[in-house]
Amino acid sequence: MSHPNNAIYIYDTTLRDGTQREGLSVSLEDKIHIATKLDRLGVAFIEGGWAGANPKDAEFFQRMQTQPLHHAELVVFCSTRRAHLTAATDPMLVPILAAKTKWVTVFGKSWDLHVTEGLRTTLAENLAMIQDTIAYLKGCDRRLIYDAEHWFDGYKHNPEYALLTLKTALEAGAEWFVLCDTNGGTLPHDIARIINIVYESLKTWHGGKIPQIGIHTHNDSGLAVANALTAVQHGATMVQGTINGYGERCGNANLCTVMPNLQLKMGYRCIEPEQLSQLTELSRQVSEIVNLAPDDHAPFVGASAFAHKGGIHVSAVQRNPITYEHIAPESIGNHRRIVISDQAGLSNIIAKVENFGICLRKEDGACRQILQKTKELEQIGYQFESAEASFELLVREALGDRPKFFAIKNFYVYCSSDTKHLTGSVNSQATVKVVVNDVEQLTAAEGSGPVAALDLALRKALINFYPEIANFYLTDYKVRILNSELGTHATTRVLIEFSNGKRRWSTAGVSDNIIDASCKAIGEGLEYGLLSAVRYSPMLTTKPF
């Protein structure tokens, strides 16, 4: 099958299909944050959601009109018009046009069972719905991707009708034809056989022109990635999937597995090599944004994907990495770990602190001290992968190079509920005592919650000493329960991301008290922000004591 320029178009549907995963929820800001990161990665299409299906998706597309993507095409998703209406009069399509995206993905029914049982209409009306919707949107100056829902099941049950739905979409003006294994039950040999038939049919209908076929697979049989790769081998030039394989039931094709396999193993071009080297970081950032623990054992991007433990493996990989590594971990932004070697642990520390402009050697006592402290903190629940600001402060503490801007002497948080009102509103107050250059400062503040009150009180205590704090603001706040079996006595890890409008940094706090964990993360976040202000603004008058 032909693949012009060996290019594969990656279509990310994390923001729509991925959010259907049970237990996964994202805010509007989360969606914008993820879209920006995907755009930077270099994917071709980003499906933002179904405008009109919920207020969040409609607002997302409005916001994106003021901050357009630089590389990817933003796509809005919708179904065909409803039965016995016209596309021009179906109100469902109004917000789709209001999204103002160049590309629209329309899904339609391929399986006759879904037409008669799901839509409760006739096979002829379903064809009319496909034709009318695509033609109408094309007439509104949109470019169309047609998602053939339940394609493979539909083809197996009624191949003639399934092919007719595709032919209808083609004649109406669709440019891409995405074959969906919606139930996730198709095996690779059937993917190959059926795509071959579709490829030749579309080519014939289109007067010999090479068709643009896409593949959308689900993982209910554990084969989403394998099926996507098989589809590419047989003519698909678009692969739809999600970061980390998020999705309904068992998930979607994991793009963090699909892209390295296509690009590094099969010779296709998905994104630029330097962008592929950002994949591990993006995978972990998205997992933090959606507040799900990263899969340490995920292929390619997992923390353990290139970890080696003991004996023959370790000695062999130290002599020649390809003995036990199928690719260079750096190619996808991961790194090798020798998990039982003190020397290897020191090497990891040395490599890490280079990012902070710090040069260490294995012989340095501080190097071993940092390693030991890191292990101790990780044992109680800290994770520095997504809290590099906290790790840098730890390093500078060990080196005697951590400026002392302030110390939190104590804090007190009080919450009261007003049961007289139907809303049951809760009032939160916080009192904080800080020490700055031997001067004690006691302040109090109210907030919408205990953490907000604590944050405001701490800033209020410090602002007169360090006016720069007015420029620091929280951009994300995540809580993770580490040992849920202990119930309300469980240890909590809080991860907070800050920004000053130019840079972002993240800190972590761990405690069996969520307020204490939050206080630790907020305190270190403000401290790191001040450290950065001193570092990047040599003329700054504010200095640590």
TrEMBL record:
GO terms, molecular function: (R)-citramalate synthase activity; 2-isopropylmalate synthase activity
Enzyme class: transferase
Catalytic activity of the protein: pyruvate + acetyl-CoA + H2O = (3R)-citramalate + CoA + H(+)
Gene3D superfamilies (alphabetical): 1.10.238.260, 3.30.160.270, Aldolase class I
Statement: the UniProt record of this protein carries the keyword Amino-acid biosynthesis: yes
GO biological process: one example: L-leucine biosynthetic process
InterPro entries: 2-isopropylmalate_synth_dimer, AIPM/Hcit_synth_CS, Aldolase_TIM, Citramal_synthase, LeuA/HCS_post-cat, LeuA_allosteric_dom_sf, PYR_CT
PROSITE patterns named in the record: AIPM_HOMOCIT_SYNTH_1, AIPM_HOMOCIT_SYNTH_2, PYR_CT
Record's keyword annotation contains Amino-acid biosynthesis: yes
Pfam families associated with the record: HCS_D2, HMGL-like, LeuA_dimer
Pathway(s) of this molecule: Amino-acid biosynthesis; L-isoleucine biosynthesis; 2-oxobutanoate from pyruvate: step 1/3
EC number: 2.3.3.21
Entry keyword set: Acyltransferase, Amino-acid biosynthesis, Branched-chain amino acid biosynthesis, Isoleucine biosynthesis, Transferase
Domain Pyruvate carboxyltransferase: start-end pairs: 8-277
Family: Belongs to the alpha-IPM synthase/homocitrate synthase family.
Name of the molecule in the record: Citramalate synthase
Lineage, top ranks: Bacteria, Bacillati, Cyanobacteriota, Cyanophyceae, Pseudanabaenales
